Amino acid sequence: MKRVTGIGGIFFKCNNVEQTKSWYKDHLGIEADRFGGCFQWRSKEGDKGHTAWSPFVRDTSYFQPSNQDFMVNYRVDDLEALLMDLASKGVLPVGEMVVQECGKFAWILDPDGQKIELWQPPSNFEDYCGVIQDSE
Questions:
Q1: 98-100, strands of its sheet edge to edge
Q2: Each residue of 69-113: pLDDT tens digit?
Q3: pTM, whole model, 2 decimals?
Q4: Strand bridging mode 115-120 / 103-109
Q5: The CATH number of the domain covering residues in 4-120
Q6: Which distant-in-sequence residues (6+ apart) come within 8 Å of 2 by Cβ?
Q7: 81 Cα distance to chain centroid
Q8: Staple partner for 107: which of 16, 53, 68, 94, CB 3.0–4.6 Å?
């Protein structure tokens, strides 16, 4: 099915990644590894998943071509079908789709030029709790 199934992650720029992760841990209890934090969940149908929370360095290029400070990662059922549907409506990807061990990724821009990450996790990915982050 070619649709969004939930939020896979929230990524944001900050001035000091380690200080930010420490502040969130000390004040809000968000534990983080080198990639960030992770909120595990289970749907009412019993499906398991997670939502990643990840601070990025202020000068990251990962959000480009957008200048925004935040990027939302949406989980999708069938990324390739969704990309074909979006293309038929004039919404073209930013760059090429990427296939990694942790799933398929693609990026688009919304009408305001904000970059959106689309992610199709692999079928055996229910317990993974990490995200891909550049190290700039």
A1: 37-42, 48-57, 4-14, 70-76, 115-120, 103-109, 98-100
A2: 999 999 999 999 999 999 999 999 999 999 998 899 999 999 999
A3: 0.84
A4: antiparallel
A5: 3.10.180.10
A6: 76, 77, 78, 81, 82, 84, 85
A7: 19
A8: 94
Question: Which residues lie across from 4 on neighbouring strands?
Answer: 76
Residue for token pair 């990026």: 107
Can you tell me the distance from the alpha carbon of 88 to that of 61, in angstroms, rounded to the nearest whole number?
Answer: 28
Domain chopping of the chain, boundaries: 4-120
DSSP the chain: --SEEEEEEEEEEES-HHHHHHHHHHHH-----SS-EEEEEE-TTS-EEEEEEEEEETT-STTTT---SEEEEEEES-HHHHHHHHHHTT---SS--EEETTEEEEEEE-TT--EEEEEE--TT-TT---------
Separation in Å, CA 114 to CA 45, 65, 130: 32, 8, 23
Tell me the β-bridge partners of 6. 75
Q: Which of 15, 38, 18, 34 is nearest to 26 (CA)?
A: 18
